[in-house]
Amino acid sequence: MIFSNLQIKKLVLNLVVIMLLTAFFIIQLNYSWLQTISPAFLAAGFTQILNNYFTLNRERNSKKNEILKKFYYKIIPEIYDYFSIENDFKRLESSTIFIERIDTDRIKNNIISYISENSFFINQEIHKVYRRVKRNKYIDDLSGFGHRTDEISLIYTVIEQYINLLKELKDKDLRLAQEYACLYLIWKHTIFFNTVYGNGDTYPAMSMHFYFNTKKMNDKMILKLKRLDDIDDIEKRKRAFKKILEFLIEKSEEKNEIISSFFENMVEVNDSYSMEILLNLDIPSEGTFPIPFRQQYREEILSELYKSKYVNSKYDFHLQVDEYNKLHNEYKNALIYLNEKELVHIETNNEYVSITISAKGQDHFEKKEMSNY
What we know:
The chain has 15 helices and 3 strands. The protein is mainly α. The protein has 3 domains: 1-101; 122-261, no CATH class; 271-370, Orthogonal Bundle (Arc Repressor Mutant, subunit A). Helix 2 (32-95) runs antiparallel to helix 3, helix 2 (32-95) crosses helix 5 and helix 4 runs antiparallel to helix 5 (146-168). It starts with a helix and ends with a helix.
């Protein structure tokens, strides 16, 4: 059985009180022989108490170190990597060729599975949030963000308890853990606000996290970010979150635009603009598209790929690598999405990128076209 510090202190205090009372009664009995040997017994008893105290303390620290090595040292690097892949590597994917797209959902699910498989090492705080994530499997997410924020909250809670354990073990190097704790809390709030005010896509905002002054990401900042959950009024919470972002972001000419992206990132798509994009799929675009328009945009690309196979298309789907890399992000992300859905094939080598429609993509397009007749 491993005792807490409070339990150990109470135990030592009780034993000391008992020894003092015993000594008092021995003196009152006035037996000279008992008075002679009592100091030796008391000294031995006190020594035993100290030995027990230090033994219990060593056992407790040993248990903490075991949890640190067998649980946190394995899951924390995965947690750091997951954030970077979701919010840094996607920027690289959109600007260069990635033959294999990284499956971030698999990484996230592996983290959650590891928590489940190592329940012996988790405390009540982690278990409570983990149960909420598990229950979400059976509950519809009517808010549009609840399930995602619960998953981020679970990962944050693991970091929080990791920080607490490092403090108990007198570990001075907390900076990286505190930084990621802040980043995950900011990510969670960005999911909320971007769903309420925007299209739910947090990547444009979170990919700007390199603007944050990491020296300001400490326990005080963690507490400020946690307290946002206690603000029920959405507008008040928005103002409080905006103040935090203003405090964290270093001086930049684009500071206002960066902060705005944490609340809303979709571009205004009016009729003339949307018509221009759909008629010129590969022209540069600013910002990201709203979800309904993005779906229409993908369908248009698939239509052109179908035409290129059976008739002709004004678009070239056999591109040099440099040409492909210069395409705008929405165009490349649409192609990657269609490839993941197995509607298109993307073949790459050192010189060229070739995009062709798959049999599944042809079926999809033809069924949609037939439904119009």
